[in-house]
Amino acid sequence: MPVPAHRTPSTAGDGPMSYAIFQLARAHRARAAAMLREMDLHPGQELLLMQLLDRDGQTQSELLESVGLDHSTVSKSLRRMQDAGLLVREPAEHDRRVMVVHLTDKGRAMREPIAAMWRALEETSARDLSAQQAESFVRIAYTITDAINSRDVAAGESA
Prior knowledge:
Blueprint: H1 16-38, H2 45-54, E1 58-59, H3 60-67, H4 71-83, E2 87-91, E3 99-103, H5 105-108, H6 111-125, H7 131-158
Antiparallel strand pairs: 1-3, 2-3
Helix pairs in contact: 1-6
């Protein structure tokens, strides 16, 4: 099967890497969303579940910080997940205004399906890469992430 040619729009001509990252992120997000739908999850909910599977009983604020999503997105996701029976939210003993999130048995049972989903997504994503290329990609992706995030911090400090 021939590999489709990738065409960068002329207005993105000075940013071919950024355009490629955008296309990659869009394709990856779409594939992950399809896989999550098969598990009755919405995109982003698996990230919250993974954080809770690593450390149950986090506050909503801790979850916000760990997944890097905005407050309204996390709040909506947690509400949906609570309605689905995956978790419960309870006021903290030390401060009734703080909500602590705990997994239910149904939520804890998502560990292996989520791990299997990420394995399958990884296999699809790296199918045509050597182990060395995949390792290099991860290193480069985090280097780019750090550069973008450090630029955001620097821009925020000067504002």
